TrEMBL record:
UniProt source species: Faecalibaculum rodentium
SUPFAM superfamilies (UniProt xref): Cna protein B-type domain
UniProt entry tagged with the keyword Coiled coil: no
Lineage, top ranks: Bacteria, Bacillati, Bacillota, Erysipelotrichia, Erysipelotrichales
Biased composition (Basic and acidic residues): 176-186
Domain annotation Gram-positive cocci surface proteins LPxTG: ranges: 481-520
UniProt region (Disordered), positions on chain: 176-195
The UniProt record lists the keyword Transcription: no
Keywords assigned by UniProt, alphabetized: Cell wall, Membrane, Peptidoglycan-anchor, Secreted, Signal, Transmembrane, Transmembrane helix
InterPro entries: Fim_isopep_form_D2_dom, Ig-like_fold, LPXTG_anchor, SpaA_PFL_dom_1
Domain SpaA-like prealbumin fold: start-end pairs: 364-457
Segments traversing the membrane: 498-516
Name under which the protein is recorded: Isopeptide-forming domain-containing fimbrial protein
Endpoints of the signal sequence: 1-22
Amino acid sequence: MKTNKLIAAGAMALSMAMTPVASLINAMPIAAETVSNDTNHAYKAYQIFSGTQAADETGGILGQVVWGNAVNEETIKDALNADNDFNSTQGDAAKVAAALADNNSLADKFAKIAAANLKENAPATDIAANAESVELSAGYYLLVDQATTSDQVDVKGLSLLQVTKKGDITITKKNDKPTVDKKVQDETNESGANVTDQNSEYYYNADHAIGEEFKFQLTATVPANTMDKYNTYKFQFNDTISTGVDFVFNSDLKTLKGLSIKVNNVDKTNDFSTVVEGKNLTISVDNLKYLVTNAAEETTIVVTYTAKLNADAVVTNVGADGTLGNNNKVNLVYSNNPNADGEGETGKTPDETVFVGTYKLPNNKVDQDKKPLAGAKFKLQRGTEPNAEFAVIENGKVTGWNRTGTEFTSNEDGDFSVSGLDAGTYVLIETEAPAGYNKAEPTTVVLTADHTPSTTNKTDNSKVNVTLKVKDETASNVTIVNNKGGSLPETGGMGTTLIYGAGALMAAGAAVVYVTNKRTRKD
């Protein structure tokens, strides 16, 4: 019997996230003098059918098909006769092979039946990962993935391959494993409203004030021709927010505010299990197939929920080459072995990470001699609109916004910086000057953060450049000067002269009154 080469440029990972049974057998007979492989799994190749090569020059035809040396002929015939799709073949190897031609679903099913009916200690040819070549006799082979699927992205599976003398086949990894993505809302204006109230887009990074609500979005895609290979398809989001971010709950303090779960644009929120433990959110369903109309079609699952930054949020200072410090990530756990019994085995995607920034406004209070000045009180206004809100500040950090806000005071070093701000325009309003000093005029400042938010590009999504402008001039901090108020000169000043003058006039007036009265008495 002619010997052919099966060349592995990496080991084959077949079925769902790799090349499935159907893609290798749907155009049988497949002529393959060499079979190249550019994937990264190791396999065992079990001969399911054997036969003879055609003698003509066209080649690629396998005749006189019989059961191969790895299959338990008795049990596989019983299994095929009990199956409605195969009972017409009466367990005849040639008829089964013919039935598989151009039939994806039957190829998938037959691979599972064959795997369940191998001989005990069936002979197999090992195909090592990255093996350059391996020799296989002509026939049909069941390729069984030897990968350990725990915590890996690829999907484990089975495939059938026909080895004959003519033609080349290259087996390549297909992008048919589930994917997951995470994005965060960012506002498009400086109104001060929660971002969830606006028609904002989702990006791979954003910036927000502490206490300001916004939404995260999780998006998973299960490729077409994936779930239909499984009896049940487990599906689970594992979402983690950073220490500086809080989940926002409804008034019952149990359900997530703004939670929405849509499967192919249909609301399925109540069909998923949602569990929050600390900073971890798990959203899962035991069998995603039940939630779709056609399991063979591509399926998209979109989750949104509300969150906010808290006082533990990492704050970025003014300057270049900054970092958005509050990272938030998600991964996806999904069924990845359609051949396993029951719930089966699962794989996990790599983490996808987004970043949420918040900034510090550096403020200094000095006197006319540029010396630090303590005791000046301020309020911080967000925006310049007449109905703008004021910051509620505790220990130098914003905790919220309302119509009155809270005062904050410069310390002995003159510092009255504020942390936890979004990029935007602010007005520093001095409400009370230190004793003996005049209040300064309101100062308008602008914090600008260049973090290049993108809906498509994740590269360097933690980088940010923060700039500050004070009264339209670029600055490294805000410096507000208090001048001393007016005082009475001790001697020789105009004030004393005016007082003396007034006293003299009063004395002269008294004299006039006295003289007048005296004259009146004489008259």
